[in-house]
Structure formats: structure tokens, C-alpha cells
Amino acid sequence: MAITALLTVKRQIWMLAEDTVFIYDPDTDKIVNKLPLGAKFTYADWQIAWNAGSMVESNGYVYIYANDTKTTNLYRVNISKPESVELIRKGESGMLKVDADGNIYMVNEEEIVKYNMPLQ
Predict the structure, then answer these.
(1) What's the distance, CA 111 to chain centroid?
(2) Which residues of 31-42 are buried (b: 16+ CB within 10 A; e: fewer)?
(3) What are the chain's domains?
(4) Closest among 50, 13, 42, 36 to 87, alpha carbons compared
(5) Would you tell me which of 5, 23, 56, 89 could form a disulfide with 33, CB atoms 3.0–4.6 Å apart?
(6) How do residues 100-109 score in pLDDT, each as one tens digit?
């Protein structure tokens, strides 16, 4: 299993490894949550492991881009209740970045696209 993305959120470390997000608490030295993405892929299936996914934090959510050999998807997890993963965009998403205002940008084919977040 390869860890392809790391993100620190509220003193915890979020890790993307294959098709699962792990939340690690360094104060207790324990994995406090495992959130499967629902996709069925493994490191062995991925063409380029270092580009297999990324995560950013914005507006109370962790957004997760996951890439396997068949598709790229965008997911999100509510930080205050990290109990499940929500698929919010299927296909043509990649390499997430967030600006100082919390706007999320991703690569879509050959262009950079701003993700329009739905109203809460």
C-alpha cells in the first residue's frame, strides 16, 4: 500500500492510500478513522503512484482527488463529522489546489478549472 497524499487538519493527519482515507491522531498514535472511497483500485493498478491523488481543505471539508487507470473522481469529507465520503464529481478531475479564499481549482484535461461548490 502506498500513501499518495498527506494533509494536516485540526492536529490530525489525513492520508490517502489506495482507495481509503486514513485519519491519524499523533497525540494517541492511532488511526482514528478509515474512510473507503468506494472505488475499487489498488496501488498495483495505478499507472503513476505519485500522481494517484491529492487532498485540500476548504470550507469545512477535505476534498479528495483520486486517480486510477479507469477514471478520476472528486470526493469530499465533512471535517466536523468524518463518517463518510461523498462523491461529488465523476471523471475529468485532477490535481487539487486551494487559494487563500477557499476556492478549489483542479486540472481538467489541459485547463485549470474552478470547482463551483454547491450552497450548503
Answers:
(1) 20
(2) eeeebebebebe
(3) 3-115 (2.120.10.80)
(4) 36
(5) 23
(6) 888 888 877 7
